Structure prediction request, 338 residues.
Amino acid sequence: MKIIQVATGLISIPPNGWGAVERIIWAYKNRLERLGDVVEVKYINQVEREPNTIVHVHLANLALDCKSRGIPYIYSLHDHHTEWYGKDSWVFKQNLEAMKGSIISFTHAEYLIDYFSETDKLFYLPHGADAEFFTPAVEAPKEHALLMIANNGLAGDSSIDRKGFRYGIEAAKQLDLPITIAGHPDNKNFFDHHSDLLDYSKLTLKLTNPTDDETRELYQSHTIFVHPSMLEAGHPNLTLMEATACAVPIVGTYKGSKHMDGMWVIPKIDTEEVIRGVLETIKTYGHRRQEMLTVRESRDWMEVAKMLHKCYKYALQVNDYYDSHITQKLYIDAYSQV
Prediction:
């Protein structure tokens, strides 16, 4: 099967550093090729309608470009701004139009299926991790240390604490635990707005866009991953999946129905809940880490690719208008055979 993954045009693929969507596209390509598919990454101006070819688009405006040119496409929603700006926004309306024009569309956060109630072409597809690369430490570190990896801010406003840095740092301070925050250099702008957080002596910042090797070392050298995020288009998002692959127990927010092994899900976002989660995780640490060691390989991108492969295969069999009934059958058949 021939598949075209449409590049965002924003960051190179594979990305040199930060770039969640670009990492997802690269992961799809690598795992689908192992299944025997021929996968190309192309810019939208290079995409033409071809027989027996799947076109998978990851930005709404690029999906609508395909629609205007009569190119059938599969669409993935990665944009958390659709919820932030609300249903009256052009962001929501553009994404909805992209879904309605697709063969089938995917969201990586289950709750967004209900949010986009105006279409029944939207289905859940989980994220994964490279479990071959993100591997656990041979032994968990002896002393507990907290870790947060993220690019904070929202809708161009660096001061918004979307990722919950304040809650993580305040929890670490009250518990007298070291905490490392790593990620994109743009996080420096967040700390310019919240400079009081820098007073904690056991806070380490690594805002250098860490390489994959550096990121893996961070997971392996810390014991608890903290992620009290207020808004995500992926539940679980990529860092939660990487933490799972590295068997690092998690304290944070999660809205999915599928059990996240080793994770303490906080019922609301505040410092006290993060503290409670960290304390409970420390008490049950061995059990939680063992849970993650048991399931980590099943969270690999290969399991996602198998489902995608099935969906692509069924999509190629449909040559007429992709109505909701056909879309639902495609997804249910693909899902049940994975």
Summary: Residues 253 and 267 are 7 Å apart (CA to CA). The domain at 146-298 is CATH 3.40.50.2000 (Rossmann fold). The longest helix spans residues 20-34.
